Amino acid sequence: MTNKTKITVVGSGYVGMSLSVLLAQHNDVVVLDVDASRVEKIINRQSTVADAEIEAFLADKELSLTATLDKRVAYSGADFVVVATPTDYDPSTNRFDTSTVDSVVSDAMELNTDALVIIKSTIPVGHTKSLQENHKTNRVIFSPEFLREGQALKDNLYPSRIIVGSQLTAGIAFADLLVEGAEKKDIETLFIRSTEAEAVKLYANTYLAMRVSFFNELDSYALAHELDAKGIINGVCLDERIGKGYNNPSFGYGGYCLPKDTKQLLANYENVPQALIQAIVSSNSTRKDVIADEIIKKNPEVVGFYRLVMKEGSDNFRSSAIQGVMKRIKAKGIKVVVYEPSFNEALFYGSKVIKSLDEFTSVSEIILANRYSEDLIEVKEKLFSRDIFGEN
Ligand SMILES: NC(=O)c1ccc[n+]([C@@H]2O[C@H](COP(=O)([O-])OP(=O)(O)OC[C@H]3O[C@@H](n4cnc5c(N)ncnc54)[C@H](O)[C@@H]3O)[C@@H](O)[C@H]2O)c1
């Protein structure tokens, strides 16, 4: 390693991997993870997540990037520590499980006396402030991450905005590092307090969930009354205040972030009156009921689920809406089969996973697909999808 700025990135999922590659163009980056196979991959210049830009950068760019399982090695001499570990929603406590973030912050505070610790993981509003108070420090700040899975690095090379929860010199220096790694010019950069920055992340995702829910409920109405949802949506979206895009009906919003972030924001309201945030959370469940009921009333023998992933191009199916529909249909005793090339087991929650597309389409009486694919062109008469615009 050289005398460049040393950055430790903790967690090598979508967020950690994307930021590591971005920052390793101009700084010495060490990735710390608890998963040995991920550490090995990074050392061997392989990506831990499916992402074309990350793979291309690892193959072609000169990067100062290494990885370790050893936290002492990772934190020693670091100027910045970026936290990108998971914060899953815990239904038993009704809030995010922040234990990985909390333990990383404690370790970093203990093993490094100077570094600025930047939390990129999504956390409850007010969490950074309580960490600052617990550790009696202003060295821990929050900076929201807005990347999308599948284009994680691209979204950091061309960020919609950079937001840093600090006006201190080190916070400004961190924003400069993100700008330096990016390719977009004139990036809108905002310095606000960490609590407001945490709120930005949760409100941005809840707004997106609200938009998805709105067009899904429009579609539920169209379905019930045999109306052309496409015509209605096109007409509605021609108003510039509403705008086109992000209006394609689906089986519900899903993926790792929107379901958990909306629930966390709702939990944050506690004693503050609200109706809309609860409605956004409930609407997603109602939408899955509507889709499942459409299928159940047809009384099929076997229902085929084409892909478990949330979106075309995704490599994982964390909290995908189609799984919620599947659960509801299975609860009625209807047989379910699954086609998911990225899943290598024989069974998915007790349902058969069929490797051959031909076999899958021939045994399925109805085929559900959250998003249309050319794979299904021959079996259009069996297909049930609400994908109107053929986009994510
Ligand atoms: N995935 C997204 O699109 C996205 C977008 C914005 C924000 N976020 C937020 O960023 C955070 C990370 O998301 P992700 O999708 O990158 O997660 P991920 O699950 O893909 O990856 C998390 C990584 O952290 C590692 N890890 C877990 N515990 C650890 C520990 N104690 N020490 C070191 N490493 C540890 C895991 O092994 C894994 O490699 C979450 O809070 C998420 O809400 C995610």
Any key phrases for this structure?
392 residues; alpha/beta; Rossmann fold; six-stranded parallel sheet; six-stranded mixed sheet; 42% helix; globular; binds nicotinamide-adenine-dinucleotide
Q: What features would you describe in this structure?
A:
This protein is an alpha/beta fold. It has two domains: 6-192, NAD(P)-binding Rossmann-like Domain (Rossmann fold), CATH 3.40.50.720; 201-384, 3-Layer(aba) Sandwich (Rossmann fold), CATH 3.40.50. 42% of the residues lie in helices and 14% in strands. The chain has 14 helices and 16 strands. The strands form four sheets. A six-stranded parallel β-sheet has the order 3-2-1-4-7-8, with helices on both faces. A hairpin with a 2-residue loop joins strand 13 (347-348) and strand 14 (351-353). Helix 9 (194-224) packs parallel to helix 12. It starts with 5 loop residues before the first strand and ends in an 8-residue tail after the last strand.
Task: Sum this structure up briefly.
By secondary structure, this protein is an alpha/beta fold. It is about 40% helix and about 15% strand. Helix 1 links the parallel strand 1 (about 5-10) and strand 2 (about 30).
